[in-house]
Amino acid sequence: MNLKIYGGVVMKYDNKFGMFIHWGIYALTGLQDQALQRFQMDHKEYDDLMHQFNPVKYDPEQWVLLAKEAGMKYICFTTKHHDGFCMWDTKYTDFKITNTPYGKDVLKMLAEACQKHGMLLSLYYSNPDWNHPYGFNPYTPFAKVWRLCCSHPDQQDTVIYRQYIKNQITELLTQYGPIYTLFWDIPPGIEDPSLNELVRKLQPNILINDRGWSKGDFGTPEREYDAINTSHFESMTEACNSVDQQSWGFRTQPDFYSLRHLNCAIDRFMSMGASYLLNVGPSPEGEITEEYADRIRRIGNWYNRMEGCLEQAQPDPLNYQPRDCKCVATMKNGKTYLHFHDGIPSTAVSLENYPNTPQAVRLMNTNTQLPFALDLLPEFRGGMGVCDRKFLHIMDIPVDDLANEPIVLEITW
User: Fold this and answer.
1) Beta strands, E only, 194-334
2) How far apart are CA 115 and CA 11, in angstroms?
3) What are phi and psi of 268, to 5 degrees?
4) Of the candidates 228, 223, 262, which has an alpha carbon nearest to the alpha carbon of residue 240?
């Protein structure tokens, strides 16, 4: 748990599991959320997709209920991606959902479904805009790559464009109820604290990420992030990945990550104190298709068996030194949780350090009690082959049956 002080008010941040949703007219391409740039599509041809976008199967309640079934506590929705297409009824551009054949404000419908079912709503907003006449920003890290896909790359005025952002952010933060977090995307390379100041004025309890126009509240490691030098994050962090290795948006032929890969990533980051956003890309018709939804349910099945031990836990300061494997140790409600996100090599875990003899050891994955003993082990690293050190020896772990899951042990001392 982290505490944030804003305006003299202490706000509590508890790490959560959430659903990221990338959805826009790019779904019609079936290629990728950045199809305009990555597949060098004709700009007019791409923009004209707006006139084909008619997601008649869109049912936001189904999205929210799927997220709840998986144990998720919030949904982060892409209001505007890099292509500039807006998924709400903004009055500052005609390039928007209410000018499609569908004609409805899908964000409003999602916000109402979230409020009905007690789901927190977060909003994603792209700083780049390939459609806006002044949307090209030469200071962003991807300026050289994205210059050719912007509608007016030689017509630059970041002051005019920032006012456009302020106008849209004002709409988003005043018309759709309480917003949990704001996810700016793509650091602009320009410092302008007035944007985050506006955000906080409109939604005083909001949390803001670190990809915006000034310092935010939490970091956002993405995809396969390995630059971690600690077992626990010292500040607010929200990791994210998509179920599809190649895209955040809908693809007709997705390359799905394995369940093991995603389960272990979620366990790793959340046991270290981070929130975790797992992304899906709805279809052009507005559905989270069954092949996407099935993976969310199966991951949620594992997550729910953890019984909340990944949320609001504290670091356990003891280095348990499990033999031949690594773990992240946390504490919650007086119990220790050992998270083996890289797996264990055998049916037993042997801990070199432990505070005392446990009362019980439970395998969270199966909700079963495991046998344990303080044992002299015949095989160990170093020494002259003499068994002279007792390990906390936890046995009978069905590792082969749990090959798609990180092993999580609950120890009651």
Assistant:
1) 207-208, 238-242, 275-280, 314-315, 328-332
2) 21
3) -60, -55
4) 223
Amino acid identity for residue 29 in this structure: T
- Cα 9 to chain centroid distance, Å, stands at 26
The angle at the Cα of 383, spanning 379 to 389, to the nearest 5 degrees, equals 65
Q: Residue 125: which of 148, 98, 107, 150 has the closest Cα?
A: 107
- pLDDT for 84: 97
With 50 as the cut, is the pLDDT of residue 1 above it?
Answer: no
At 40, the amino acid letter reads Q
pTM comes to 0.94
Q: Is 382 exposed, middle or buried (0-12, 13-18, 19+ CB in 10 A)?
A: exposed
Q: What is the dihedral of CA 255, 259, 260, 263, to 10 degrees?
A: 120
258: CB partners within 8 A, 6+ apart = 404
Beta-ladder partners of 339: 328, 408
What separation in angstroms does the CA of 222 have from each of 185, 277, 338? 11, 10, 24
- Which tens digits make up the pLDDT trace of 108-133? 999 999 999 999 999 999 999 999 99
> Percentages helix, strand, coil for the chain, rounded to the nearest 5?
25, 25, 50
Structure tokens at 186: 């793509």
Q: Say if residues 389 and 352 touch (Cβ distance below 8 Å).
A: yes
Alpha-carbon dihedral 255, 261, 266, 269, rounded to 10 degrees: -110
Which two three-digit tokens encode residue 410? 């609950």
d(CA 335, CA 77): 35
Rg (CA), the chain: 24
Is the pLDDT at 12 greater than 60? The verdict is no
Distance, CA of 145 to CA of 80 (rounded, Å): 20
Find the angle CA(216)-CA(193)-CA(196) to the nearest 5 degrees. Answer: 50
Question: Across the chain, which distance is largest between two alpha carbons, in Å?
Answer: 78
The identity of residue 256, as a single letter, is: F
Strand partners, 184: 125
Using DSSP's 3-state secondary structure scheme, residue 133 falls into coil
Distance CA 137, CA 126 (A): 12
- Judge contact between 284 and 55, C-beta under 8 A: yes
As a whole number of angstroms, the distance between CA 213 and CA 193 comes to 6
